[in-house]
């Protein structure tokens, strides 16, 4: 049987490398998703997810995460979590609850403590310094406070044909306290059906949630479209509607995988993503939007790009 994982952004590659190793040895898609996203959450230099995520306008790190089991549609989600070490693990646990499967704010920590999850301060000195620098830039240069909203989202397929997906994000940098984006919202940030496939999104949540693009991608795959056809049609059709009705469209990027391990990507910005399957070693790609609405240009990330990326995310904050 085929197996595989696809995920948004270069930061997901180490996680899906481990995840697909487990899948190759008969592991479940559900377990692979949680383990892979936890690796992203735990790495302090990824400034848009987990520990080291960038704070809101008050200097508080508020994290969102979600998990979905494609076999039975069980969903668990958290939003505005401030002290849970691995929000994705709590989201997966919540997916087993018949009631109260989506918790926010203080309710996340109360549940996590009761269930034995690790609690810690999620604000690093590096993230705090970045926040302080942005405050100074806003005062001195009248810059917009909002900068960065990169969600890690993953879809997995195991050898038994089961699928799962998950998301995790610190959301929009300098967001209003309590702001929630698309990442923990079913159909917007994520959706998966083991009989069809799954999709997940990253970008400006306020616009992504208007179109439920993850669900639409899965729906289109269910009509017989290949993942690349489905994800491109879902994004392009809605982006055109949004531009026509509102005059503008925020950053959209989506990845999808069907229940055969075939995958596709759509984006209206330069975007990195990672894929691994039984036919493909873990690979980091760059996608570039087309000017005519056709499929994006996709190329393997060069070693020069990868080295520059690592240097950039670990560079000292002045």
UniProtKB/TrEMBL annotation:
Gene3D superfamilies the record matches: (Glycosyl)asparaginase
Pfam families named in the record:
Asparaginase_2
Which domain of life does this protein belong to?
Bacteria
Q: Which CDD domains match?
A: Glycosylasparaginase
TM stretches of this protein: none
InterPro entries, per the entry: Ntn_hydrolases_N, Peptidase_T2
- The protein here is known as N(4)-(Beta-N-acetylglucosaminyl)-L-asparaginase
Record organism:
Enterococcus lemanii
